Amino acid sequence: MAKELEESDVTREEAAEKLESIAEDLRGDGSFDVNVNNRTVHLAPPEEIGMEIGVREMSSLLRGSREAFTVKLDWKPE
After folding, report:
1. Where is the Amphi-Trp domain (predicted)?
2. Looking at the whole model, is its pTM more than 0.90?
3. Which of 32, 42, 70, 73 has a CA between 20 and 30 Å from the CA of residue 58?
4. Does residue 63 contact residue 35 with C-beta atoms inside 8 Å?
5. pLDDT average, residue stretch 3-11
6. Positive or negative, the Cα torsion across 20, 24, 30, 32?
């Protein structure tokens, strides 16, 4: 399977709603679908999954300061 990546500028509220939707799906009873670009991906996480949280601070004279926060969840499908 190829890697799908969707990037967009959203408000803080829109970002929170997307994360809440994913959290709700994870709390559900099994599999769920995620829409990325024009593709729907069916995911079936097991009860335990890997989780990685990262924070990056960047400073550049030309671009100014930026911050990045990433969340990565991974698992082997059952």
Report:
1. 6-77
2. no
3. 73
4. no
5. 86
6. negative
Q: pLDDT tens digits for 19-33?
A: 999 999 999 988 999
Distance CA 48, CA 39 (A): 26
- Compute the distance between CA of residue 44 and CA of residue 42 in angstroms, rounded to an integer: 7
Lowest mean pLDDT: which of 11-20, 45-54, 63-72?
A: 63-72
Residue 43 CB neighbour total at 10 angstroms: 15
CA distances from 44 to 6, 51, 58, 69 (A): 20, 15, 35, 25
Determine the residue type at 60.
S
How far, in Å, are 27, 65, 75 from residue 40 at the CA level?
19, 34, 18
